[in-house]
Amino acid sequence: MRIFSLLFICTTLLFSTPALSLPHDNTQGFLMFQVIQDQIIFDNSNIKSAMLIEREGNFIGLEIELKAPAIDEISRISKAGLGKQLNIVLDKKIITTAIIQTPLGGKLLIKGITRQEAQEFLDSLNHHKQPLAKRENLQEDPLDELL
């Protein structure tokens, strides 16, 4: 079984030529450098709760509520990264990016993630939060239990 965690990375994009501007329609063939300034990994040690969000049967995203130390850390990272790109990485793959416009807080809604990726993340949280002796008694639906 793979272990999933969400990784938030604040990056600054740098290009080798200051005057270089990327065309809006096609960026293929351009070399991009990323300088990772800060990151935080979210797993069941710093997530208070997580659940799938649906409206009228349509999958919207994954809502995550953080514990106190993680709230402070994501707030610090996002304040320092205002106007910069935030990459959200799941299982070593960027699932969505955004430009940080305001500091983040204790509740996050992750969009741009598939229902399957969100469910695998929830399954991993539920599986790894219980002692080994109790893992065989996992409920069928991981959303039935509070993280």
UniProtKB/TrEMBL annotation:
This is SecDF P1 head subdomain domain-containing protein. Keywords: Signal. The keyword Signal applies. InterPro entries: SecDF_P1_head. It comes from Aquicella lusitana. Residues 1-21 form the signal peptide. It comes from the Bacteria. Residues 34-121 form the SecDF P1 head subdomain domain.
